[in-house]
Design brief:
By secondary structure, the protein is of the alpha+beta class. Helices cover about 30% and strands about 35% of the residues. Strand 12 and strand 13 form a beta hairpin. Keywords: Coiled coil.
């Protein structure tokens, strides 16, 4: 009888315990926390993201130079180069007998003076740009600037330095041309009225017109570039100045920059066919990289958008509700918090986070949520490889019972 009574009492107590816990867990607005389950999580990271436009191209010479002969100023004598010859600025191309050697000399001297004025003008402009950089950097060192102001100053200096670089290139080209003209003046043969036309370019002679039809000589630069074609849909996707990566078979990646986009189509516009627009990529070969063979076909990736040092998370860590984006952040206090975030550029399975997260935070991947609250406690799987038999044996009976009871209540 006593045993029967104990059985009834134990059963009733068990039913009561289960009923009370079930009621508290399932009751709306219950103060009892529901525990979520996190089986996988990752850390937010900082990294660079790129968005690229993919197309194809072919290797062509960077520049094509045409040399002309004016039959009204003299009688042609002879070519001093042949097809396939490599020439540099100052190398002789052809000779002719001048009809008015004094006038030709005056014209060359006038051209030399004009080039000298252009060189001086560029040098003055370069000095002004360098002075501007000094003023900007001095202002930055004397003022307490926020991050936006610092970035603006940095970008301004970078832009000015780019302009200085371009002006220095222009100056070098003009100086090379002036040097060639001075050499032509010194080579004038007053006695025989002979003049020698010198090359102002470096490259390879690809064509000589022996019938003296202009151009009499064509010179292709030895520096390669990439030429491609864009459809009507794609022509607005890239801009001059965008970085590009060129991939050729067995050559690896070669960096470059979009140098030209034609706004007029390759062929005459027609209602019956789609227009295509040529574009060019100027290559930036490293010292150890060999020039690509003319005519070789390549793949081109143009970087249309680039985010440096962005906070990123895996795409699978995003929780989407309509157009809103959220992530479940694991706090240092052991809680799981659903956090609204603003996303930016996406590259593959990596998502930029513009607002809402910082680097080195833990985010849960597809957590099993059992709470309507924004902040909830959570459990993770038991990683048996981190459990030692010795650690379990050192636990007392009361501790084991406490952990079992805690786990039962939480689940």
């Amino acid at each position: 009888m006593m045993k029967k009574w104990q059985i009834i009492t134990g059963t009733a107590a068990s039913v009561l315990l289960i009923s009370v816990n079930s009621y508290l867990l399932l009751k709306k607005d219950s103060e009892i926390d529901r525990i979520s389950y996190v089986s996988q999580y990752e850390e937010t990271k900082r990294g660079d993201l790129q968005e690229a436009f993919h197309t194809e191209g072919v290797v062509v010479p960077l520049e094509e130079h045409k040399v002309y002969f004016n039959e009204q100023i003299g009688a042609f004598s002879q070519f001093t180069v042949a097809e396939g010859d490599t020439v540099n600025p100052g190398d002789p191309l052809f000779e002719y007998e001048s009809f008015n050697i004094e006038e030709d000399q005056r014209m060359l001297e006038f051209e030399a003076d004009k080039l000298e004025e252009q060189i001086e003008s560029i040098e003055d402009h370069i000095d002004e740009l360098r002075s501007f950089i000094i003023v900007i950097e001095a202002k930055e060192s004397t003022e307490t600037a926020d991050e936006d102001s610092t970035n603006f100053i940095y970008n301004s200096v970078v832009d000015v330095e780019k302009e200085i670089y371009q002006k220095e290139l222009e100056r070098e080209l003009l100086m090379a041309e002036a040097s060639v003209i001075q050499k032509q003046i010194s080579n004038i043969d007053q006695q025989n009225n002979m003049l020698t036309t010198l090359s102002t370019y470096a490259g390879t002679v690809t064509d000589i017109n022996t019938s003296l039809g202009n151009p009499v000589i064509t010179i292709h630069s030895d520096t390669p570039s990439i030429k491609g074609s864009l459809t009507e849909e794609d022509v607005d996707k890239i801009e001059v100045g965008m970085p590009a990566h060129v991939f050729a078979a067995d050559e690896g990646k070669i960096n470059g920059i979009v140098s030209k986009i034609n706004t007029y189509p390759e062929d005459e516009p027609s209602l019956n066919k789609e227009s295509s627009y040529p574009f060019s990529v100027e290559l930036q070969l490293e010292e150890e990289q060999e020039a690509l063979l003319t005519g070789k076909h390549v793949n081109v990736n143009v970087v249309t958008n680039e985010i440096l040092d962005a906070v990123t998370i895996p795409v699978k860590a995003l929780s989407t509700a309509g157009i809103a984006k959220n992530a479940f952040v694991i706090g240092q206090d052991g809680t799981l918090q659903e956090t609204p975030i603003t996303v930016g550029l996406k590259m593959g399975q990596t998502q930029e986070v513009v607002e809402g997260l910082s680097s080195e935070q833990l985010v849960a991947i597809h957590p099993d949520i059992h709470s309507e609250n924004d902040i909830t406690s959570f459990n993770t799987p038991i990683w048996t490889k981190y459990i030692s038999k010795t650690a379990i044996e050192n636990l007392g009976t009361k501790q084991i019972a406490k952990y079992i009871f805690t786990g039962f209540i939480q689940r």
